[in-house]
Amino acid sequence: MSDFVIEPPAAVTIPVAGGGEFPVRRVYCIGRNYAAHAIEMGHDPDREPPFFFQKNPDNLDASGEFPYPPHTSDVHHEVELTVALKTGGTNIPLDKALDHVFGYAVSLDMTRRDLQGEAKKLGRPWEIGKAFERSAPVGPLVPVEKTGHLDQGRIELFVNGELRQQGDLNQMIWKVPEMISYLSEYFELAPGDVIMSGTPSGVNAVVRGDRMHCRIEGLGELEVVVV
């Protein structure tokens, strides 16, 4: 007999290429981690201390569909490399950070830009613009044994066949080991944690019926339709 007073929610998982499911604990997202994107958002791209916001684990969605959300008329695509951790800890040394990585995936940080902009003006948190239902479409996780550690390679996004975003993973201001080490100074990282590592320039709006096609060199592709 269960001691739960209500039915517990289902575990959130990401499919793993080759079989299996990766259970998700937390989702950390770094902001403005490509210089060109920082500039297009009106910020100085100099290497200031990194900052993070969070999405909810159940925002991750591997269905291949993105339902256009309510209370917005300006939803933007942001293609990103997602990093999944198999182990964690606190105060992780930089030279040991990659030892904690299980694998990588192509993902999208979908953003209600108008609502995020209002929150910024008012000095409020961003969750209303970032952490809504199914706001993080994600492809299968590829174990690091198959990909190696991804520190360079083309990252791009097409909408209806038109190139919108392009960059290289080596253009990240804060690299994957630095993000892991920095986060571990402020949080106790754990197995199942996911880090979304920022987006290159070219973010723009989508509408219902649009088809987004994302690629990261050495990792694979993700196709998502806006419904």
Automatic annotation (TrEMBL):
Q: Which domain of life is it from?
A: Bacteria
The Gene Ontology terms for molecular function here are:
acetylpyruvate hydrolase activity; metal ion binding
Is Aminoacyl-tRNA synthetase set as a keyword in this record?
Answer: no
Q: Does the keyword tRNA-binding apply?
A: no
Q: Which Pfam family, giving just one, matches this sequence?
A: FAA_hydrolase
Question: What UniProt keywords apply to this chain's record, in alphabetical order?
Answer: Hydrolase, Metal-binding
Q: Where is the Fumarylacetoacetase-like C-terminal domain?
A: 27-227
**Name the record gives this protein:** Fumarylacetoacetate hydrolase family protein
Name its species.
Answer: Halovulum dunhuangense
